[in-house]
Design a protein that fits this description.
- By secondary structure, this protein is mostly helical.
- The protein has one domain.
- It has three helices and no strands.
- The protein is elongated, with a radius of gyration of 30 Å.
Amino acid sequence: MADINFVGRLSNLWSGFVSLWITDVEKRHPEIAYQNAIDSMIEKYGRLKSATAAIMRRREEISARLEKERSELAAISADLNAALATGQDELGIVLIQKKNALEASTKVLDQEMEQARTDAQEAKDSLIQVKAEIQKLKDEKDRMLAQ
């Protein structure tokens, strides 16, 4: 038990020395700290960009499904009107059931589409914010190095 504690303490001691050494290097070379922060933000931007692309693909997929269901709904409505005009009651009942199911599905897709639009806008805003932060860090780095 004491050996584990000793190894942990030794590890903490080593981490502390390394941390102090890195801090000392960063104080002498502040551009390293800035570049590390910029690189970290660029990596975050890349991950966020991929996530945003996935959100936008989802939005486009929902949009296509919604458009398809709306066109099916229009076709069923036309068929229903024709069935009612020709007195085909049994076909009319089947078409009414299909129409009701499609209307319910369209309502759900409308809600999903609204959520997808909101998600896409939030993702875009986040991308813009991260890009601005990257530029801010680059500008700050240039100012500090000029001084």
